[in-house]
Amino acid sequence: MNLYEHTIIARQDVSPSQLRQIEDKYSKIVEKFDGNVVKLENWGLMNLSYLIKKNKKGNYIHFKIKANGKTIGELEKNEKIDKNLLRYLTVKVKKFDLDTDYFKKNEEKENSDK
């Protein structure tokens, strides 16, 4: 099994319940094809560097996945036809960094340090 980090950018006007459905949908696809979602992070609504399909912002969802290439191929095939998604990116990694929360709010970081 290979290790992958997979990030999805959903449209800015997607509701929180639709975001949960997107997370569940792609988690189930990974599990259906003998993969394992090690960690799922919802990074929230962030500005895009440039307009993508007339959107200035996007909801970022990040998966850390243990799977094979067939699973990733199936995942990306489903994402290509999903109208709620703007972009996706899959990167193969050697090991996961499960400790660092890069997009945690500053107040939360300060409170956890105390």
Number of domains: 1
- Assess the beta-strand content as a share of residues: 35-45%
Strand tally: 4
Order of helices and strands: EHEEHEH
CATH topology descriptor: Alpha-Beta Plaits
- Report the biggest beta sheet as strand number plus sense, adding barrel if it closes: 4 strands, antiparallel
Report the CATH C-level class: Alpha Beta
Low-confidence stretches: none
Helical percent range? 25-40%
| Gyration radius, in Å | 15 Å
* Spatial order of strands in the largest sheet: 2-3-1-4
SS-derived structural category: alpha+beta
> What does the overall shape look like?
globular
CATH architecture label name: 2-Layer Sandwich
Secondary structure elements and their pairing?
Elements: E1 2-11, H1 16-32, E2 36-52, E3 55-67, H2 69-80, E4 85-93, H3 106-113
Antiparallel strand pairs: 1-3, 1-4, 2-3
Helix pairs in contact: 1-2
